[in-house]
Amino acid sequence: MRYLRACFSFSVLLLIGTAYDLRAQSAPCPPSQLLLSSSDPAYADALQLKKTLEDHGFRVYCTFETKFSSMFSLWDGDVAHSTILGEAGLRTDLGDIDAVFLPSNQTFAEFQIKEQRKGDGYIHKTSGTPRMHGNVLESARRQYFLKDHNRLLLLGDDTRLLTHLEHALGLQHESL
């Protein structure tokens, strides 16, 4: 009887420990007010990217707003004009992906990125279209960029995620 109780107790602890471990591995999604709304101009493109990633084995937990829209805004006096359709962040089991979208009849083919080291960080200078406010991205870590027709995917310094995305989408990251 003691043996059965010990086995049962161990099984319960193992189950609780496994459930806790799985929960700890998936980062929480942002609050609901920051999730991408169906009224967002990039919503359809974000859903299409989500489906593509899921078709290639990614688990996508949520899509949410990002900060990139302001970087692709140009000012004409007091009025900001966006040079992109929109943007979305996707939280996956392999890490976060930031996506910038153009209208479907445009591409990122003319958008160029050059990387430079600056102290302990990186500077990414951009040129071409779409135009970017200031044409510079500064970061403490290397960033990777994947261009795919009307979408630009931005990743932090995560070569595991980069490799999986390149394979899933049949892309090669920009040589900087």
Protein architecture, described:
This protein is an alpha+beta fold. The chain has one domain (30-169). The chain is 30% helix and 31% strand. It contains four helices and ten strands, in the order H-H-E-H-E-E-E-E-E-E-E-E-E-H. The chain has helices at residues 2-25, 43-55, 68-71, 159-169; strands at residues 60-64, 73-76, 79-82, 86-92, 95-101, 112-118, 121-127, 136-139, 144-148, 151-155. The strands form three sheets. It has a five-stranded antiparallel beta sheet, covered by helices on one side. Strands 6-7-8 form a three-stranded antiparallel beta sheet, with no helix packed on it. Strands 2-3 form a two-stranded antiparallel sheet. The radius of gyration is 20 Å and the shape is globular. The N and C termini lie far apart (66 Å). Residues 1-25 have low confidence and may be disordered.
Quick description:
With 176 residues, the chain is of the alpha+beta class. Helix content is 30%, strand content 31%. It has helices at 2-25, 43-55, 68-71, 159-169; strands spanning 60-64, 73-76, 79-82, 86-92, 95-101, 112-118, 121-127, 136-139, 144-148, 151-155.
Q: Name the helicity range.
A: 25-40%
Total domain count: 1
- General shape: globular
Helix/strand/pairing category: alpha+beta
Topology:
Elements: H1 2-25, H2 43-55, E1 60-64, H3 68-71, E2 73-76, E3 79-82, E4 86-92, E5 95-101, E6 112-118, E7 121-127, E8 136-139, E9 144-148, E10 151-155, H4 159-169
Antiparallel strand pairs: 1-4, 2-3, 4-5, 5-10, 6-7, 7-8, 9-10
Please name the defining characteristics of this protein.
176 residues, three-stranded antiparallel beta sheet, 30% helix, five-stranded antiparallel beta sheet, 10 strands
